[in-house]
Design a protein that fits this description.
The chain has 3 helices and 2 strands. The protein has 80 residues and is an alpha+beta fold. The longest helix has 16 residues.
Length: 80
């Protein structure tokens, strides 16, 4: 679920599976199309975020990524 730290805005989408292609499509249609491409993203270590196609997209869009410990209230507590 994308979450904007400053405005506390979040947005979600129903997806049929967690493949990297499905997640990227959901990000483009739900988040990037409304709010633009972020400068950085904080992600957990899910398989849909740690693969070659995901890193190619981040490089192409010039997005810096940072990984957070899963279920950690210190790094992504608002979302968890």
């Amino acid at each position: 679920m994308p979450y904007h730290e400053f405005s506390k805005l979040s947005s979600g989408a129903y997806v049929s599976d967690k493949t990297p292609q499905t997640i990227k499509r959901a990000l483009f249609t739900v988040w990037f199309s409304k709010f633009g491409v972020p400068k950085r993203k904080i992600l957990d270590l899910g398989g849909e975020f740690t693969n070659e196609t995901w890193y190619e997209m981040l490089d192409l869009l010039n997005i810096k990524d940072k990984t957070a410990a899963a279920y950690s209230p210190f790094s992504n507590g608002t979302v968890e």
